[in-house]
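Researcher: We're teaching a course module on how sequence relates to structure. For the next exercise, students receive a sequence and then see the predicted structure as tokens, so they can try to spot secondary structure elements on their own. Here is the exercise chain.
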Amino acid sequence: MILDTIILENFGAYCGRQEATLTPRDGKPIVLFGGLNGGGKTTLLDAIQLAFYGAKARISNRGRHAYKDYLRQSIHRGTDPGEGASVVVRFRRMIDGETRHFELSRSWRQGVKGIEETVRVLRDGLPDDVFTDHWDEVIEAYLPSSIAHLFFFDGEQIMELAEGGHAAEILGTAVHSLLGLDLVDRLESDLKVFERRKRAESHDEAAIARLAQARRELEHIDQEQEKAANEAGAMVNVAGRLAKQLSEHEAIFRAEGGDLYQQRGELENKLAELKSRKARLEAEFRELVSGPLPLLLIEPLLAEAEKRVSHEREIRHAKALVEVLEERDAEVLTTLQHSSLQAKAIDTIERILSEDRLKRQGLASEELMLDAPDDLAPHIGHLRGVVLPNAEEQARRFVAELAQLDEHIARVQTDLDRVPPEDRIAVLQSEVEAARRANVQKQAELDSLRFRIQSLAKQRADAEVRLDKMSEQESDAQLATDDRQRMLKHSQKTRDTIDRFRTEIVKRHVSAIESLMLESFQKLLRKTNLITGLTINPETFEATLFGRDGKPLPFDRLSAGERQLLATSMLWGLARASGRPVPMIIDTPLGRLDSDHRKNLVDRYFPNASHQVLLLSTDEEIVDGYFESLRPYVSQTFMLTHDERAGVTNIQEGYFAS
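Model: And here is the predicted structure for the students to work with:
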């Protein structure tokens, strides 16, 4: 299987449509997602499992919620519940030697009768009714939900397995699922039910009376369980109301200014800082006003003065030119009069020269009103074109900043004015504390009742065992020659055979699993000769390590990092033993490992874990040198950017900046 695309729509923190392409390139199996804690990494892992398994999915934050309640709560808060949410996974896998492309869509919305869920499967782009109607059976046949945790897991699962407390239970469940022994267990349970029914058919009156008493005891426990469950339901409602009252008191506390009261010192410091900044800004503004800025008021007069100075410069130039022309014309006429030129021609030339001088004397005769130096006009132009615009822009900036500061000061002052007196705050705090104590007390009562429910469940199991034993004893005495006895004996013999079959099957296959786990562990461990052997008890599924001396090595002799590597190698070995070509998805992959063990995972595990590996990393895991080591194997990188204020996560290409 290869995951090609994941599409989330209004799921959890993902608002709107968010899509990521997951197809790996040749030789680069890793698709790397980066995101801060609480930014949506685990939600992405939950989405893929939810799409595949629905109610059977191991989802991180479902807790004790019913499946429909979880779906309702997983719709993005800002989305209309009637619009709903959806998860779409596009993938491909080989079927009968051919690659088939699938699109699996799981969507849900709030309808008139509650949450309405829809599953749709497209195969090679076309709707497939068989796969759609029987999707649960299809996925369980290909990748049973009981072993999905071997391929889709997070750091917490590694820690749980590394601590060792539940290691045997986890290994036993995984091995049973891998070998198909869960079907054998179901057959054994069915045989027990068959035996119980057959024994009940053969009892005499005394035996029937004893069995009736045992059944009444069982019914009494059932009634107590039902009563306790009803009490728990009612108490949950009361606890919910108390929690709501606590929230209301806390809201009143905030509305009355309780938060402001707690922030009073911070607000006073902020107000002083804002006023100080305003004073500095006003001083700078006054300095600007004392400069050329007031000249902006007479800017039109400055423009007129600049124009007049330029014109008077032209008048002076015209006066000088007229004087030069008069001298030149006189010399020209004198020269012409001494020449042989006719008098008529000389008169014509004299007239032309005189008319030219008269034209020029018009400008030269204008009065010099300012009589300013010639360089005054450029100075006025620089003042108007550069100095005054800069001063005006600075003034605008000062005015805008001062207005903004005044607004901030007014807002902070308003908050300070809203700070209630201490006596009022004391009353509100007392009410909040009283509501909190009531809520805590009711939660404790609820926990006690839940413990009683667990105790009743154990009593019922014990009573059921006694009932079965009584039925068996009575049956042995009554059915010596009865045909029912023959069936019971054959059933018991079958169950004995099943027990032996289960043990033999585990023994036959456990050596291969041990070998794969040991090989995986030695690949990951930097101390290659620390562990020389690993065995799994086929009955208890407890794992035993052997050191270099051939003697058992207790788990607590390993460091915390080595135990986590061992847990990872167990999951890796089990996944390899399954023989299923399934992608690996790992949330917070490096967890609490030290630098040496982190490097082993980065160099030896992630590139080889599967043909496709999705890693969901925080900003403290696959970064810097680890990212550089992993880069040659990375096909795609994505960032899960979370807007805390809006409560929205977006999928974007890229990764943490190095």
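Model: If you want an answer key for the exercise: The chain has a mean pLDDT of 82. DSSP finds 18 helices and 15 strands in the chain.
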